[in-house]
Amino acid sequence: MGGPQAPVLATLALALTRPVAGRLALATLLGAGALGAGIGLIATSAWLLSRASQRPPESALAIAIVAVQFFGLSRGLFRYEQRLVGHDSAFRSLAALRMRCYARLETLAPAGLIAFRSGDLLARVVHDIDSLQDVLLRVIPAFAIALIVGVGTVWLIWWILPAAGLILLAALILAATALTWLTGRLARRSEAERAAARGELTVAVVDLLRGAPELTAYGAVGAQRRRIAASEARLVRVVSSAARTAGVGQGIAILLSGLAMWGGLLVGVAAVRGGVLDGVLLAVIALVPLAAFELGADLPAAAQTLQRVRRSTARTIEVLDAVPPVADPEHPRPVAPGQTGRVLRVRGLRARYGMDSPWVLDGLDLDLVSGASVAVVGSSGAGKSTLANVLLRFLPYEDGSVVLDGTPVSELAGDDYRRIVGLVSQDAYVFDTTLEENLRLARRDATGAQLLDALDRARLLEWITGLPAGLETRVGAHGAEISGGQRQRLALARALLAEFPVLVVDEPGEHLDIDTADALVADLLEAREHHATLLITHRLAGLQAVDEIIVLDGGRALERGAHAELLALDGAYARMWARETGSTSSP
Amino acid sequence: MSRAIDARLLKYARATRPFLVALVLLGVAGAGLIIAQAWLLADIIAAAFAGGKGIASLSLPFTALLVVVVARATLGWGREVMADRASARVKAQLRDALLEHVAALGPGRGADRWTGQIAVLATRGIDALDGYFSLYLPQLVLAGIVPVAVLAAIGAQDWISALIIAGTLPLIPLFMALVGAATRERMEHQLQALQQLAGHFLDVVAGLPTLKVFGRAKAQIGAVGAVTDRYRLTTMSTLRVTFLSSLILELVATLSVALVAVEIGLRLMGGHLGLRTALMVLVLAPEAYLPLRQLGANYHASAEGVAAARQVFDVLEMPLPARGRGSGVPDPGVSSIEIEGLRVQYPGRPEPALDGISMTAAPGEVVAITGPSGCGKSTLLAIMLGFLSPHAGSVRVGGVDLAELDPDAWRAQVSWMPQRPHLFAASIADNIALGHPDATIEEVSSAVTAAGLRKVVESKPAGLETMLGDDGAGLSVGERQRVALARAFLRQAPLLLLDEPTANLDGETEAEVLAALSRLVAGRTVLLVAHRPALVALADRVLELGAVPVAA
Predict the structure, then answer these.
(1) pTM of the predicted model, to two decimals?
(2) Which 8-state DSSP code applies to residue A562?
(3) Are A28 and A73 in contact (CB under 8 A)?
(4) Is A106 close to B218, i.e. CB distance below 8 A?
(5) Which residues 437-476 of chain B have a CB within 8 Å of chain A?
(6) By the 8 A CB rule, do A132 and A228 touch?
(7) Has the ipTM of the complex gone over 0.90?
(8) What is the pLDDT of residues A159-183, one digit of tens each?
(9) Is B498 helix (H, G, I), strand (E, B) or coil?
(10) φ/ψ (deg, to 5) at B447
């Protein structure tokens, strides 16, 4: 994948700098001041020594002595202030960008995030935004400072001796353009090769670690280590050949600064000999280029940084430009409060993942009414999870209608609508905090009794009261400290606590052993007997208690009715039932 | 600050040593060139200005100066090339040592968390050593060589200036240490806060769908903004202090140079010093301070890598578990397996994972192990595989204790299929031939047929040579399970351990996998962890694990 084009980069740079333009300009001026003081220090010292060797009266040197001390002192102070102001503006700008990206991600989640979800892309988006900090700290100021100080220094040397000024100008321009371009180009090429080799190595390493049980059991650890060694050897080769070119930038920078010094000295000596130049200034002409090239050295590094953040920039822009799958109406209608008496009516629902894709839902009718429960069953790929996403307004639908209490849902704001219609998904997320905080997400003002009641109904209470820290127990990142079953039940408790008038439950028994899963479904249906519940599942146990069962196949209702009716049909449902119950007798 | 890591690096990564030697050589050459350049510069300026000489009579020093300039550039190039290469080599050696040790520690630790930490350490962690090798270490060597050489060169010409520089130079490491000590705690605290912040953002973004369901997404994003702002304020107050260190270093360096400039200027005026010497001192003086200042600046670039290296060493120093050496492995196809009083207690858990389990499996018998989740079914299989050692009790095969056998030799008799098998980013054929890499195409192909994978393979564009993505991406759950089955078929081992092989499958797929399983268990001794009735039906008898160990 190639990097973004220059105009796109410029757009992002503008977006990054605009909120902090004043501070950034100040930081740049301070940086130019620091670099200028360094050059001033060398220039005045060189003049001071040359003049002193002519043994003038002491008063002739007084100003130069003060200037040397001033430059010596101010350089450090300028640099210190520059770093503070620069970091402050980078943090501010980044915070603004982060908020914009998050606000965008929020409108995209969850269906619009699928494109970002492969691998750890989502994690990378977060890191990408952070890595853009370097653009503000090292790239933009480096170029601006180079321009200011470069012009100033060339002007100074030109004023002393035009030929020397010309030489310095040529060297600086070469460093700023050719060298920057060259190192940037080399960095991009070697970075791509390196990324490929490193990616291969990472896959092999992760395979060794994640697949350690299989590799050990099958005696294949040695073979996998040999694979890693081969990848590693390839990476070392790529790095070695890249290093040869990467070092070129470093070498050329030193060479250019040396040549500028050498050339300046050459024309300077000739000019002194020819009487065009006062010999007192010869040392200035020779020594200033060495100091001035401190800025030449910053530019290749800035170019490399720019290359490094190219992909981060591209992905950040991708996020900012992504179109939300479901947009809120401009003037949403209000949603009446109330727990019961709700009707969510679905008619002829059709949905798919793109214009050329097949229909995932193809003309489905469904009524969710307070006090009734509906189950949707079917094999994987029948469209069950798509149905959940459409009902939550995470995904758009193309045909048909979804109407809540007489109002088409497209006229409601998504957040208002989702106060009525809730979801427990099979990959419900638990946050890296305490059990209680995870629960309270559903209801900030819940009383202790309500928390315990929800936990009890999700069959978690016994476990939690047995924990040393109780509700204060931390669940770890992604809930790593608790088991998959406990995670699932915690998600269910959360949804019960929220008391959604309409609740969609997607595969509640996933990750649980069968007895617990069946008990959970029974408890869930009982807990919600006054509300509307849609149970999406591939397991049929417990569906006797459901008012209507819909067998979904290819996005359509293949069969529908109560458990007994469907068994009597002796069709798809009856076959599924027979397979699930197997040799055990049906309850 | 980094002595301890250097010693251990030399021990675990042998490529470090030649790199250090080369760096010292380059550093000495570099110092020589710096001095030569200063000397030539001063010589030319003094001769042209005070001596009134022209280019023609100065052609020799001009040529020499050009040579020095080109040599410095070449040296700069060489240092970069060498640092990158050495870094790659050292990282390779360190990674290899780490993975070898982790493999030897065995998969018994198994926890996702540990695996994840090692994976990050072995990839991103070790890669962070680049900063240490390409920036910090070269600078460290330069900081040791250049100031001494420069000081000697100045001293040979003008001992007063040398004295001033020698007096101020130690202030740099002194202040670095003082300010460093004063700010270290704040810095570490800040670093932690940053990591927590990043973790928090990630948590919020990953949990966005859930937040949205509960109408908390927009509020959370506002909270993220507030946290970021607070973080900025505390970071800035820390930076104000930490940047002080470079301010002090910079002030010491530039003020010392200014001091030297004024001092030699005044002595020049008094006629106590020649212009050539004065200019040479002026050019050289900043070079004495530069490497030390840059060392301070590069220290942070190395910090992450140093921390990672420490973690690597900590893992490398973990003791390896005891390993049996016996090679006379009995054949489970003819000897029975006797499990007696097995007890396993995981650290930090109140209840033992296995509490005195006993059972016997005759050759060719299929035993189903059932029980509620957490009753130790998978732990039992881990012991049978030699991934775990029991705290009490024993497993004997044909009378020989498993603990005394070489685990690799024992595992050659065992085939295993877990609940969620790991598939490798390799071809389907390679995945199947995991335990039998020199299997012929025919052997792989017949395993494919036996596992009911034939149709799946034929539907793929490259057939058996189809490459799978990370962890088998490109296959459905049922297809993965059948690849693992084919793996077990090809293994041809007399003892078969199955851990809920149909756990995540829906009805139809389950039926197909069951059919293949019934072919696989035929004629083998099998321990089968099972939940579903259809799976239990494959067994000759059932062992139920629970609160009370029951031997059926």
Answers:
(1) 0.75
(2) -
(3) no
(4) yes
(5) 437, 470-471, 476
(6) no
(7) no
(8) 999 999 999 999 989 888 877 787 7
(9) strand
(10) -65, -40
